[in-house]
Amino acid sequence: MRIALAQFNYTVNHFEYNKLRLIEGIERAKENNAELVVFSELSVCGYPPLDLLDRRAFVDKCIDAVNEIATHCKGIAAVVGAPSYNHNPFGKMLYNSAYFLNNGVIESVHHKALLPTYDIFDEYRYFESNSDFQVVTLNGKRIAITVCEDMWDNQPPTPGVPRSNLYRLSPMEELAKQNPEVVINLSASPFSKNNFKRRFEVFQDKCRQFKLPVVHVNQVGANTDLIFEGSSFVLNSKGEAICKLNEFAEDFNVVDIKEQQAINIQTQANSIAQIHDALVLGIRDYFYKSGLTKATLGLSGGIDSAVTLVLAQKALGSQNVRVLLLPSQYSSQHSIDDAVALAKNLNVKYDIVNISKTFNVLRESMQDVFGNAPEDITEENIQARIRGTMLMALSNKMGHLLLNTSNKSEAAVGYGTLYGDMCGAISVLGDVYKTEVFALAQYINENGEVIPKNTINKPPSAELRPDQKDSDSLPDYEVLDKILYHFIEGHKSADEIVVLGFNEAIVNKVVKLVNATEHKRMQSPPILRVSPKAFGFGRRIPIVAKFI
Amino acid sequence: MRIALAQFNYTVNHFEYNKLRLIEGIERAKENNAELVVFSELSVCGYPPLDLLDRRAFVDKCIDAVNEIATHCKGIAAVVGAPSYNHNPFGKMLYNSAYFLNNGVIESVHHKALLPTYDIFDEYRYFESNSDFQVVTLNGKRIAITVCEDMWDNQPPTPGVPRSNLYRLSPMEELAKQNPEVVINLSASPFSKNNFKRRFEVFQDKCRQFKLPVVHVNQVGANTDLIFEGSSFVLNSKGEAICKLNEFAEDFNVVDIKEQQAINIQTQANSIAQIHDALVLGIRDYFYKSGLTKATLGLSGGIDSAVTLVLAQKALGSQNVRVLLLPSQYSSQHSIDDAVALAKNLNVKYDIVNISKTFNVLRESMQDVFGNAPEDITEENIQARIRGTMLMALSNKMGHLLLNTSNKSEAAVGYGTLYGDMCGAISVLGDVYKTEVFALAQYINENGEVIPKNTINKPPSAELRPDQKDSDSLPDYEVLDKILYHFIEGHKSADEIVVLGFNEAIVNKVVKLVNATEHKRMQSPPILRVSPKAFGFGRRIPIVAKFI
Question: Which residues of B touch A525 (CB under 8 A)?
Answer without folding.
Answer: 522-523
